[in-house]
Amino acid sequence: MLSVCRQSFSSSLQRISIRCVHSVVPEYKPEADLPQNEPILDYLKGSRERTELEGELKKVSATVEDVPIIIGNEEFRTDQVKYQVMPHNHQHKIAKFYYATPALIEKAIKVATETQKTWDRTPMSDRFVIWERAADLMANEHRQKLNATTMLGQSKTAYQAEIDSAAELIDFFRFNLYFLKEALQYQPISTTPKIFKNSMRYRGVDGFMAAVAPFNFTAIGGNLAYTPALIGNAMLWKPSDTAILSNYTIFKICREAGVPPGVVNFLPADGPTFGKAITQSPHLAGINFTGSVPTFNWLWRAVGNNLDKYVNFPKMIGECGGKNYHFVHPSADVESVVNHTIRSAFEFCGQKCSACSRMYAPESLWPQIKDGLISKRNTLKIDDPTKYDTFTGAVIDATAFKRIKSYIDFAKAGNGLEIVAGGKCDDSKGYFIEPTIIFTKDPHTKSMTEEIFGPVLTVYVYKDKDVNSAVDLVGTSTSFALTGAVFAQDEKFLKDSLETLKMTAGNFYINDKSTGSVVGQQPFGGARMSGTNDKAGGPTYVLRFGNPQTIKESFVPQKEIFYPYMLQP
Ligand SMILES: NC(=O)c1ccc[n+]([C@@H]2O[C@H](COP(=O)([O-])OP(=O)(O)OC[C@H]3O[C@@H](n4cnc5c(N)ncnc54)[C@H](O)[C@@H]3O)[C@@H](O)[C@H]2O)c1
Ligand SMILES: N[C@@H](CCC=O)C(=O)O
């Protein structure tokens, strides 16, 4: 980006030719460069994508893929052997992987910190070519491998995999590239360009950044690791144990696309072992985290405790949990409420950070909403996600199964709660939990306030006349503020809700479900304990990892230290 150039200025007296060293912005054509969201394929019977997907599903389920630790150009295997299994058939292994030891994490830190120096000098235009190539490989040759590893490893249906490991991942690569190109267009004002020129360039941060990924979105893992790399950082990527194979597939695609060794290092590891090693390194430049609040708190505390060690203040980016709501006004369209709520609460077993898990319904509409929810819920097939009529597969693992079941058991035991539908849990073959609807008279009961991260929806029914106090409950009863939706036809209520519910959600929906954000359309993230709200999929996300440098270059020798008025006292 930085090069020597020759700038010419005409003046009535002379033509000055100035040799300057300044920022050169890569070529950019706003309209041609604006990406389109990746189309979501249909997977209809006989379609090419369905045939290709089935081929990949067979291959992935017939192998236990060996997934090494990768540091620079070297592969490592340790004696801490782990397996990734299919959540819907937990005796079936699909990947063998190894936990990195503290010594290997240390080695990766060294490699990344060294690599950052050369990677940061790689021209932006060269990085852009690699990112475009990666997105094309994801959209074409490797699309179905990404989907198959996500379906089998994280128990997603074809549609849920397609919107995640294909569309959203590809969009993250293409849109962040576009957003960075756009940002580079800003150059500071140079008021007297014959005398001096100002410019600004983006660097990575010297040191390394860590990307700590959750299990639930393959695309999020890719975004956490590769978007900071795009702007010049070197990364240690710690994938989730339960999303190893899909995340490793992204890693391999990016290497094939030309991301040099050492720019992103792939380090499956025990969470706290990894967290301890990175936060103790003086070279920690940032943590790009998505996951639960307790883990982010752990990392932030560890960084705080080590503050005196660091070369840079580590950038802390953390997108965390939610307790997302559907608030139904007495004027709402019931059919919309029911359909959006079923999708939001139960698709992918409610394991989206944005999933609706609490509903506020008016007494006047509750009988219709209840009937609608129960009858729609009863049509959902919970099974192997590779079957095309399956609505949702299993929850991710034994720990999640136990946690979600404990909330259902709490409701079964009374505690002022009533299970109106579902409630069965069976982990004999896979970690299956029925979509469950709970009714409560207590808006502060734990299933109305705590993140469950499973297919459990709790409904609080308010008296129509108390609609305003019911609205107040939304923001006062939990510490989260990730996503939320209001359903109403009453325009005044909708308008008011933009103010009354302003701080309750980073992504706010009107007559639409609380899930399903799309890169470039609904930049995503929440506030309060839901995260630092850095808006993945939005124009400022990539800049969060940049280390901008402002350059002022003077062309005219300075011959004086006094200001003119000082010379005429
Ligand atoms: N806001 C968002 O954009 C968003 C998106 C997806 C998921 N989430 C949230 O993520 C959570 C689900 O994901 P999860 O179960 O994988 O979360 P998690 O917090 O259990 O784990 C996230 C990652 O942190 C690692 N980890 C655990 N302890 C660690 C430590 N001490 N140091 C370093 N790393 C450590 C885990 O191994 C994993 O890779 C939910 O709370 C969900 O709401 C939020
Ligand atoms: N982009 C997703 C959220 C990801 C969180 O898990 C959605 O809005 O459904």
Can you summarize this structure?
The chain is an alpha/beta fold and 569 residues long.
Give your account of this protein's structure:
GO terms for molecular function: L-glutamate gamma-semialdehyde dehydrogenase activity. Belongs to the aldehyde dehydrogenase family. Its EC number is 1.2.1.88. It holds the Pfam family Aldedh. The chain folds into two domains: 2-320 and 531-552, Aldehyde Dehydrogenase, Chain A, domain 1 (3-Layer(aba) Sandwich); 324-510, 3-Layer(aba) Sandwich (Aldehyde Dehydrogenase, Chain A, domain 2). It is α/β, with parallel strands linked by helices and 569 residues long. It starts with a strand and ends in a 15-residue tail after the last strand. It has 16 helices and 25 strands. The relative contact order is 0.13. The site of 5-oxo-L-norvaline has 9 residues, from loops.
Structural class: alpha/beta
Query: What is the CATH top level name of the largest domain?
Result: Alpha Beta
The name CATH uses for the topology of the largest domain is Aldehyde Dehydrogenase, Chain A, domain 1
**Could you give the order of strands across the largest sheet?**
16-19-20-15-14-22-23
CATH architecture of the largest domain: 3-Layer(aba) Sandwich
Q: Please provide the count of β strands.
A: 25
Which ligands appear in the coordinates? nicotinamide-adenine-dinucleotide, 5-oxo-L-norvaline
Q: What is the mean predicted local confidence, pLDDT? A: 95
Biggest sheet, in brief?
Answer: 7 strands, mixed
Backbone CA Rg? 26 Å
Outline type: globular
Strand coverage percent: 15-25%
Count of discrete alpha- or pi-helical segments spanning 4 or more residues: 16
Low-confidence stretches: 1-18
Cα(first) to Cα(last) distance is 47 Å
Q: How many domains comprise the coordinates?
A: 2
